[in-house]
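Case study.
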Amino acid sequence: MTAQEIQTSWPAVVENADAAGDVLLVCEHASNQMPAPWGHLGLTADQRQAHIAWDPGALGLARGLARRLDATLIHAPVSRLIYDCNRAPDMAGAMPRRSEVHDIPGNATISPAERLARTEAVYLPWAAGLHGLIARRIALGRRPVIVTIHSFTPLWHGQPRAVEFGVIHDADPALALAILAAARGLTGLRSELNAPYSAADDVTHTLRLHATPYGLPNAMLEIRNDLISGPEAEEAMAAALAPVLNMGMAEIQKQAKAS
Amino acid sequence: MTAQEIQTSWPAVVENADAAGDVLLVCEHASNQMPAPWGHLGLTADQRQAHIAWDPGALGLARGLARRLDATLIHAPVSRLIYDCNRAPDMAGAMPRRSEVHDIPGNATISPAERLARTEAVYLPWAAGLHGLIARRIALGRRPVIVTIHSFTPLWHGQPRAVEFGVIHDADPALALAILAAARGLTGLRSELNAPYSAADDVTHTLRLHATPYGLPNAMLEIRNDLISGPEAEEAMAAALAPVLNMGMAEIQKQAKAS
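After joint prediction, the assembly is written out as follows.
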């Protein structure tokens, strides 16, 4: 085994750590890596490239946004099928047995010890990394704006999805509403609130654990992955969405001053 | 300098880690220790023994409860005047300049770098320790019940406080209400809800950060410190409150089954 193969803790990856901007970009589903000791979970190469293993395009888009917004970016280093960092350890989706139409053989039966081991190897280092970034900013008087970046598949159980850009909120909808209005004003994207998922689908764990307790402005962004299907498309989407985020943040700052 | 004096990280202290009970006891204000490099913050020995530096009696009571409930206990190793682990890094109370009638000279002017250093040395290790306990339990299918143990001074700005036992809730009042009812039924303690403080006073940071996001039952208990003023009194109070907590937990389990 190589050193990487016997790694037992998978720390979050942080880019642009000293960025001056207010936004902290979070990408829980950036990677489709399935390192030892988990192997490929019994999946084919095609399945490991598919949206069930990660959010294709999300990391490239997040990097484009990080450059344009001078934002710090944190992303998870292993596949959501090993551990989905946007899920609590007892949620079915944390280590899913099935995703859309695909059974995940390596997750068919997970013992309590294995569930604990994945939590310790992936979820806890991820959570500590993200919490550390947030708490350090807050200590310095620079309260971050938390924006998570996701992508979704254009076909779900065979049905096409019309929405192109979804903006999802947890307890505080202010930033999501402002981003949605900006997207409708500044882009031609078919943009919807709480689509294709909402907090009721348990998709806002990161926002709930890391942003809501500190009262930080926050939103989850979902981009249909056929619109970010390669480096050029990712860059074009980042160029389209950076002004949307800036306008959304300006709006909530205006609201905060007025209240 | 001794090794202890140059310690730069103050991890949370965990007792009874393998306990089988459902309760996880949390004591953020267990200690009045003010280690180097902070020294005594310019306070007298009397001030360092007073309630401003810690919650006198809370750790002894928590230990008595831990034994009786077979509960894990986690407590902070340094004084709340160095860093109050029940406060976010930008709350005034995290590193207070003044507490009740006492100025805290060593906290009169805290630079951003010092605020960051205390956050990294005390708050982040504390939060990681508590989050780790909770996430590991959840991964094993043993969702903990979070109960924080505090004490308050019988005289506040010279005025006596009549309340003896306060039960405080964050977003979910279920456990606090059940404990309050049990205390009124089982003890002669003058027991009140959200007294002498409430969530509006920013005293529920631990509950909000660690219990609410996971939907864990939770409550904050406040005992008047003249009732736990030594080992015998702490034991007597633990003996009185252990059945109260058991009855409160039984009540919310009954409610959960009925819903």
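Observations recorded in class. The radius of gyration of chain B is 18 Å. Chain B has one domain: 13-258. We will return to this complex in the next lecture.
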